[in-house]
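User: For my dataset I need records formatted as: sequence, then structure tokens, nothing else. Please produce one.
Assistant:
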Amino acid sequence: GINAEYGIIAHLEKSLDYTIFDVKWIPCSARFVVVGSHARGTGALQIFEMGQKELMLSKKYEKKDAFKCCTFGATSLQDRHLATGAFKGRMETWDLERADAPVYSVKAHNEIINCIDGVGGLGIGVGAPEIVTGSRDGTVKVWDVRQEKDPVALMQPKEGETKRDCWAVAFGNAYTESERVVAAGYDNGDVKMFDLRTMSVRWETNINNGICGLQFDRRDILMNKLVATTLESKFHTFDVRTHHKTQGYPSVVEKAHKSTIWGVRHLPQNRDVYMTLGGNGSICLWKYNYPKDRTKTDSNGDDMGLAGTVEQVQNVVLGTQPISGFDWSPDKEGLCVCSGFDQTVRVCIVTRLKSL
């Protein structure tokens, strides 16, 4: 059941005059960046800071193409460059202090970039700073912005295969200089895990509903858990520590929000706590509990993983429209920012997370 001890408090909110698609805290600051689309089809990129009583607009830029998604995952803490994916297929990075022109720009895809993730930045983990983009054109591409305009890896349908709309991408398993995977989720329910070291598909499954969100609990550790959220109010938490040759990875399935679950975000300070974003304007807080044994031996003597359980800690309805973006503050535990299709951005505080 829901635990009344844990509160989700809507602290500050602001209505904007454009469709908001994504929101991220600027690392080491009390500011966040909002990206989206003006009614006339241009891109909105705005920076807000938290005042005592209100959210204050500190910088705003309007760009030629509407933005769909953004990440700081591949930038250094010195630069804090934001990487964006746009409706016209362009991937760019921006110095938010001087964002009149992009630092890096590439025509990454022929159609909209639905999703983006970054790894190797922010002083977290090891390995090259890389950005992954997924598009309606059916491809997933990995970029190193220090290199010229060609992707360092490309995942696309084999000849004769139907191309599927890629809705979600996530980096994981980046625990050494050379190890790294990308998980990609598609509109038909396919989840594929690409190993960037061997350039091969490491695992794939289908969970019957379009994949709206994917995230590893941590990008920079030996992969541990992967959460996939889907269209019809279900989300799957996979234990990705132990792979079995016929059973794959075990998972536990939960229902929530009575609507599409637009995404998932793990708490930076505790990888077993995560928030899901609802199409009904709600956010739900969850805690994963490991089983007593995470593996068992099958009749052939092979190890197979065992899934744990998921408990809902709290939920709150913030508005009537879907929650489009959400980001936990990396610096202040429990502080989060989220955006909705009601054109509102909200800063919330989740209390007592240390006791989970």
